[in-house]
Amino acid sequence: GEGYSVQANMMLKNKVVDAMKAAFEATEGDLAMRMLVAMQAAEEQGGDIRGMQSAALKVVKGDLSTESLYPDWQIIYDLRVDEHDEPMTELARLVRLNRAQIINQEGHELLKKEQRKAALALWAEARQMAPELEEIPFWQAVTLADKPADVTTAASILQPTLADDPLREQWLDLVRRLQICGLLEREGAADELLAAMSFE
Fold it and tell me: What is the dihedral of CA 60, 28, 157, 153, to 10 degrees?
């Protein structure tokens, strides 16, 4: 197809390649998602004659604008699942978590550019996409509590995450440690964040 190719070897049925092509073309989203859906479509047609053994996905971005002979490659996704009972299911989970981290980082970059509203929207999307990743809301909250010193919003992000977390006390202690070691630069930021949250 235009701008892409799909291949298969040792496939169970001759419908695998056509299924991948149709799924890739019909799917919206980033390249990783389109690749994942194409692989899932292949699996639905029987996939590999040996059955499921492994699954991998790699997406690399290249800056071709440079005059250098070789583009500046940046790895966006580099995920692999080996010897797993459900490798495609596990790969899909990893793609989702990786995508959430990418969106979260984009939010951090927007906040640095003082685009607060857009940053908060991306952060909310990342939290919703990967609710099991406590580090996403944790670092969002820490960032807001420090600079630009929006403790209220920081607490509203972190409190729901830690409400039922069995490791809550460890996370709260980490907030204190960040202040002590200077990663929270604004004086009193940790105490203010902790005071703004209440847990039963």
Answer: 100
